[in-house]
TrEMBL record:
InterPro entries, per the entry: BRO_N_domain
Species this protein is from: Nitrosomonas communis
Domain of life the protein comes from: Bacteria
Listed name of the protein: Phage antirepressor protein
Record domain Bro-N: where: 15-114
Amino acid sequence: MKEGEEQLVLFKNKEIRQVFHENEWHFSIVDVIEAITETDRPSKYWTNLKSKLFKKEELYELSNKIIKLEMKASDGKYYSTEVVNVETLFRIVQSIPSKKAEPFKKWLAKVGYERIQEIQNPEIGVKRAILQWQIEGRTEDWIDARIRSIVTRKELTNEWKNRGVQDKEYGYLTNIISCETFGIDVSTHKKVKGLKNHRLRDHMTDLELIFTMLGEKSTTAIAVSSDAQGLNENAEAAKAGGKIAGGAARTLEKKLGKRIVSSDNFLSGGNRINDPKQLALIPDKE
């Protein structure tokens, strides 16, 4: 499966849209509600249910797990749609008073079985990812760097979590590291590569992955050494860690005579030649 790929699945002859995002399926919430409640106003039903759920302190965390992705509607157009993964959808369905809720949970358990397997044994997910990358023709060096980048990222986010940083703030800190390392934020980096609903790191070159790891590994070490607590202190650590990677990147760029950031990607299974117009998005940085 590729990032952004959509499928229709049936529950009791009701179509439910699902989209593949960050290596797992995400389901349209309004589609699920329509299938379970048979309401003719699923959007209104979801708005009311969401309001009730978020008033409960123990369910407030759901707000950070609901994301919006572009999905194709019945009119053939694409709209921003609220979606959740299997685990979060289970929690939402438990709050819906319907006779179909229980059968749906059993159906969902079957649909999400592979994902649950991966949670219980992460090695399954890694092996699946490696197989997919091999099929796409990625080199062994790239695959090795990508796997190590996953480990490095996990170590960093674990530190952030333990140091009082909220999940929704990870992106802000990541952008700090990216700006200091490459001179651009994550969004611009994706534009340079011509990416939309794709994971940036799955389209990085070996060098981009290596310097990303250096920035994140340095940030982790600095956060631990300085005992950074909260967003502001961890932002300082991210800036310092990114500067270390950025300094190394600038040194190599001078030797190579070109940027580390590249417009190369793996769309359609191949690398694209650098596009000068897109590379112009990167500001000069000494």
